[in-house]
Amino acid sequence: MVDIIVIGAGPAGLSAAVNAMTRGKTVRIFSSKENYLSKAERVDNHLGFYKMSGKELMDKFKEHAEAMNIKVEDGKVVNILPMGESFMVNINGEIAEAKKIILSMGVSKVKEIPGESKLLGMGVSYCATCDGMLYRNKNAVVWDQSNEALEEANFLQGIGVNVTFVSKNPRSEHLNKDIKYINGTLTEVIGDDVVKAVKIGDDVIETDAVFMLRDAVAPTALIDGLKTEGNFISVDRYMETNIEGVYAAGDITGKPLQLSKAVSEGLIAAQHAALQIDKTKEN
Length: 283
Fold this sequence. Notes:
This protein is of the alpha/beta class. The chain has six helices and 17 strands.
């Protein structure tokens, strides 16, 4: 178990990791996507760093983290489970444990469809390698929303799941020939207590499960009960969410969506998380 797991490796996440390390805490940081700052043509509003491209800034942030032996691990976090004094974190089927969590994934662009949250864990899954064996000899729909979707659909078929692959893209030559393909987009998950079907356009397809293989998971789907305001996570002045031990920092907490705010919030979250860990040790 480590002291703090940081999810997201943009300015807020790297700031949090660096500041947690300077306070003697063990840290793991996970990211599954490139930070948007890397694509910014020019940044002039971060004090002391101006007339620089976003990529140049991100390279400096990464250099700082690497100098402190902070390694960004490639992985999509699909679930966070509170365990009393700690948290279990599911990263593509591998489990890690931490005393505190800092969410810093940037603005959430994930739009859930009707029935998704209601049936999460009841047939809706974000990880084929995690839940695939539950649906061996059953029917499952895989919705193509990430680069890994093809590989995970083939994996499911290989362990005995009857897979239907839904994608807006033409059928790929890399998709197993035994997998049924539908050109389209999911618009609804249907079921009361468990998944019974999905809606694709005007068609209803019966299924036991649906795997939504996105590059990222909506914050509210990561951990049950997380309070939000619109698309943003609600936090207090210490960047703590309504769930004790879970912090959020950066664009994910709302406007202004600015680099300096993200870096500062990462620092505040890490400092407070470290302080709470120290208080626990003293008691």
